[in-house]
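Case study.
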Amino acid sequence: MTTTLTLSQAYRAGVAEEMARDDRIFIMGTDILIRGGHFAQVLGLGQEFGAERVRDTPISEAAMVAAGVGAALTGMRPIVDLNFLDFAFGAMDEICNQAAKIRYMFGMPVPLVIRATNGIALGGAQHNNSIEAWFAEMPGLYVAMPSNPADTKSLIKTSLRLDDPVLFLMHKSLSGMRGEVGGPEDLVPFGHAAIRRPGRDVTIVTYGGTVGKAVQAADRLAARGIEIEVIDLRTLYPLDLETVVASVKRTGRAVVVDEAPGYGGVAAEVAASIQEAAFDYLDAAVRRVSAARSPIPNSPHLLEATIPQVADIEAAVDMVMREPA
Amino acid sequence: MADTHGAPEATMDLEPIDLAGMPPATLTEWLRTMVLIRTFEQESVRLSLAGKIPGGIHSSEGQEAVAVGSIRALGPDDVVAGTHRSHHHALAKGLSPRSVMAELFGKADGCAGGRGGSMHLVDPSVHFFGSNGIVGAGIGLATGAALGFHMRKQPTVALGYVGDGGANTGRTWENVNLAAVWKLPLIVVCENNLYAVETHIDQSFAGESIAGRASGFGLPSIAVDGQDVVAVHRATAAARERALAGDGPTFIEARTYRYEGHNVGEYGVYRTQDEIAEWRTRKDPIDRLRSALTARAALDDQAFESMVEEATATVTDAVRYADASAWPMLPGDRVAWPADQIEMGDR
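After joint prediction, the assembly is written out as follows.
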C-alpha cells in the first residue's frame, strides 16, 4: 500500500517510524518542537514524541553538532537538524574534524544524522550555498540528497540505521513536491543510483533539485527523437559509479548536471570518473552543466541566469550529440 | 629519567596544601600517579627530541594535579574528553603507559592503532573520549556524552577539559550555555596555564577571570589552585555531586602552569626563567603533596624514591613495548576509510 505525501511529510514519516522503532533516536535543532522546523520537516513530531526527543536548541550550531557527536558516542542516535545547510558553516569543525574522523581515529561508531535543507531558491546569497561536494569530499561522511518523496522517506530510514555520520540534504524547492512513498521496511541502500528514464542516446547524471529539470529536458529532446537516460545519484557518497558507467557504455555520451558551481563539484567528480572508467566507449567529451561561479542573487531574473535551466541541459545534450563519433 | 622531584631544602618555600579529611592511602595513590605522569612526560619529551615520536607532542609536565585531582573525583564509567595537551588526562583516566607510548610512536599497539597520535589518544573501554587537536572541541564531545547520560537517566557524568586559549573560542561557550540550559551532567575543567601557545592571557582575555566569564552563563563557576591536587579534587567532587543530583553543569578554572613549551623543541622568549622557576619551586604539585604527606608522617623519602623508581621502570617498560611494537602497515599499502567496506544499507 502506498500513500501520497510531500517531500517534507515523507521525511517526517520516515523519522517518525524510526523513532517509534528505536528509542535511541532523537532530534536537536532550532524551532523544531512547536514550529516543526523551517520547512515543516518535523511538524507534529514534537507533539508525538515530546520535548525530550524533539529538543529545541539555542542558535549554537557548533554545540548542536558537538552534542550530537558526543551523544552518538554514548550509543544514542541523534538527528541534528540545521534547517539550512548554510548554517553548517558555524559547525564545520564539529562536522569535518570531529564527526567525520572519530570512527577512524577512535574506532568508535558515530551514528549521527545531520539534516539540512540546501539547493537554490529565492532568499539570496547566504541561504543558498550548494556545498554538498564539500561534505562528499570529506573522508568519513556520507551524503544523501533525494529528489522525491519516496527516496526521502526510504533514505532517511537507511541513514538512521547506519553507524556513520550522514549529511541528509533536502532541496528547498522540492519541499512541497508530492509523491507516493513506501512502507516501514522500504529502505533504499546508500550507493544505489536510480534510472529515472531509460534512453539509448545520451546519459544525464544528476541528483536532488536538478533531476526534475533533467527529466523535463529529456522529454523535450524525445520530441526531437533524442532518447535520454536520466540517472539520479541519490547518494553523493558513496557514488554509484557502476550504474553510471554501465549507462555511459550503452549511450557513449554523457552530460552531468548539478546546481553547484562547477569548480571541484560533484559533477566534476562524476565526469572524471566516467572518463577513467569508460574512455573508450565515449563518442564525445563529457559535458558539465553547473551553476555560474557566483554567489546566488535574489532577483528572480538574475537567479535564472546563474543556475542551470532546462534549456541549458538541452543545449549541452545537443553539443555532445554534435561531436563526431 | 625523573630528576626534578624537588630537593628537600626546596620544600621550605612550598605553598602548603590542606589534606584534611583525605585518607593517606588515597593521597599516596594520587602522588604515585602524578609521579608516573611526570616521568612519562619527561621521557616522552626526550624521545620526541630524539626523533622517536613522529609529529611532536605537547608536554603536560607541571599540570599533573589538575588531571589527577579531577579524574580521581570521577567514577569509572564517567566520560572524559581532553585537549591537545592530554597525556596526563589519558594516564590518569587509566590508559596504560604502554598503549599511550606506542600511540606516540605511531605503532600498531598504540591505543588508536597508530591512526591517532598524541592529539588523538583514546580508549572507549575506560570512557576516555580522546585528546583532541581542536581547541574547545573536547568539551563539545563531553557535552554530548552528558546529553546521552541525561536522556538515558544514567548515573554518570562527563568531564571536558579546555585551556585558557579555549576560553576565547566560541564553541566553548556554545557548549557551556547548552549544558546549562539543559542542566546536563557536565563538568568543565579549564586548565588555565596562562599561555595560549606563546600568548599570555593578559594579552588575549578581557574581563577579570575565566571563571568570572563562565559565571555569566548561569552555572556555578569557581577558580581553584590547579597545583593543589586536593583542591582540584574537592571542587570536582562537588561538581559531580551536583551533576548527579540533576542540578546541571559546573565550570572549574584550575590555575596551573606548564613547565615545557607549548610544543617540544619550542624556543621560547615569551616568559622568563624566573617565572618558570617560581612555579617549579614554590608551587610544584608533586613537591607540595609530597611535603604535606611527609609532614603528616604518611610518607618518607624512601617511599617517595621507590615511587620514582617504580614510575621509571613503568615508563622504561612502556618505551620498550612501543619500540618492539610493529608498524601498523607496510610501506606501499594504501588505506581506505574503513566504512568503504561496510555493506551499505544492510542493517
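Observations recorded in class. Chain B has twelve helices and seven strands. The domain at 23-315 of chain B is CATH 3.40.50.970 (Rossmann fold). We will return to this complex in the next lecture.
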